[in-house]
Amino acid sequence: GRFPLQPHPRPATDAERAQALTDLHFGRVFTDHMAHARWTREGGWAGHAVVPFGDLTLSPAAAVLHYAQEVFEGIKAYRHADGSIWTFRPRYNAARMNLSARRMAIPELPEEDFIASLVDLVRADAEWVPSGEGESLYLRPYAFASEAFLGVHAASTIDYYVIASPSGAYFTHGLQPISIWVSQDYHRAGRGGTGFAKTGGNYASSLLPQQEADAEGCDQVCFLDDVTEKNLEELGGMNVMVVDADGTVRTPQLTGTILEGNTRSAIIRLLKDSGRRVVEETIPLESLLEDISSGKVREVFACGTAAVVVPLGRLKGRGFDVAIEGSEVTHEIYERLTGIQYGRLEDPYNWMYRL
Ligand code: COI
User: CA spacing 20 to 30 A to 39: which of 62, 138, 241, 339?
Assistant: First the structure.
């Protein structure tokens, strides 16, 4: 492949790997290898390789540590019943990483290199792709400013890596409904900012409100827009959708402050093709709370690559705490999407890409 495999002095033994693959959660276990390439202003992208997974050596002056010039992606590899390994719409992630990269003044990585980095890494670490219910190999491509320079300027050296983490459910209680703390003091993103880009800073800004959510006994934080402070945007690390009693599904429209989720986009397509009305529109918190109380809204769910599809069972904030009972459509969507991803259902869209 484009990312030739370097010899590994001591890969995990079968027993070590088997041990690491028991009782999987999210993002704590890593495979033997990682993909790497480096961009320099003079030479462009070079040095493509799959190398042993290990600590990085970085100058303490590396720009990413100071000014957060960074982008990342999240994408999974799924093992099908026949043992084959597939990923989901990798071109979507390749294109989105480049969209994020443009905003963060990071050079674009050719889509073919992005795909090849996934293919070559997963081939090297194929035995690390788990096969349990709801398990997958979570792939984390990312690119960051490694130039040792404290000037506030786009770096002239960027390192691209892909690491891989065998993972189970993102939430420890699996498909159980999660509870949401609506952040009214903090916003995730602002107009003209980086909200649409998948960059670490957006997640950094969600950490304090996430601590607030934890303290309130909630699983995830939900953000409102920064202009009116009234409308739903997204959760700390996933998009949000609302199911009305008449079957319509609504989700906040992309305004530049919301992450364009791959799962969000796939679900919109699946729902529309099953004959459902799907609307991308402004969803004011106040009317959502009223609609939940009156029964006009039956379900609310979150979706993302890591979280997949998960029902929201409770919305809490200053001055309100409401329960949401329904999860029928949410489960339908979960079954349909994961059915395609794990090869249990037909893939009429050609979304799956064999690794
Ligand atoms: C995802 O891969 O779904 C993410 O958005 C990253 C993070 C929230 C786990």
Answer: 138
User: Which of 305, 308, 309, 341 most suits a substitution to test ligand 1, by most atoms within 8 Å of the C-beta?
Assistant: 305
**Ligand 1 contact via 317 beta carbon (within 6 Å):** no
d(CA 176, CA 50): 38
CA distance 160 to 323: 43
Nearest CA to ligand 1 atom 8: 237
Q: Is 237 in the pocket of ligand 1 (CB under 6 A)?
A: yes
Nearest CA to ligand 1 atom 9: 306
Beta strand extents in 146-177 (DSSP E only):
157-167
Please report the ipTM that was assigned to this predicted complex.
Answer: 0.94
Residues 46 and 89: beta-carbon distance below 8 Å: no
Give per-residue burial for 285-323: e unless 16+ CB within 10 Å, then b: beebbebbeeeebbbbbbbbbbbbbbbbbbbbbeeeeee
- Taking the C-alpha atoms of residue 60 and residue 80, their distance in angstroms, rounded to an integer, is 43
The string of pLDDT tens digits covering residues 207-227 is 999 999 999 999 999 999 999
The alpha-carbon radius of gyration of the chain (Å, integer) is 21
Does ligand 1 lie within 6 Å of residue 180's CB atom?
Answer: no
CA 328 to chain centre: 24
Pairing outcome for strands 178-183 and 220-224: parallel
pTM surpassing 0.90? yes
Q: Which residues of the chain have pLDDT under 50?
A: none
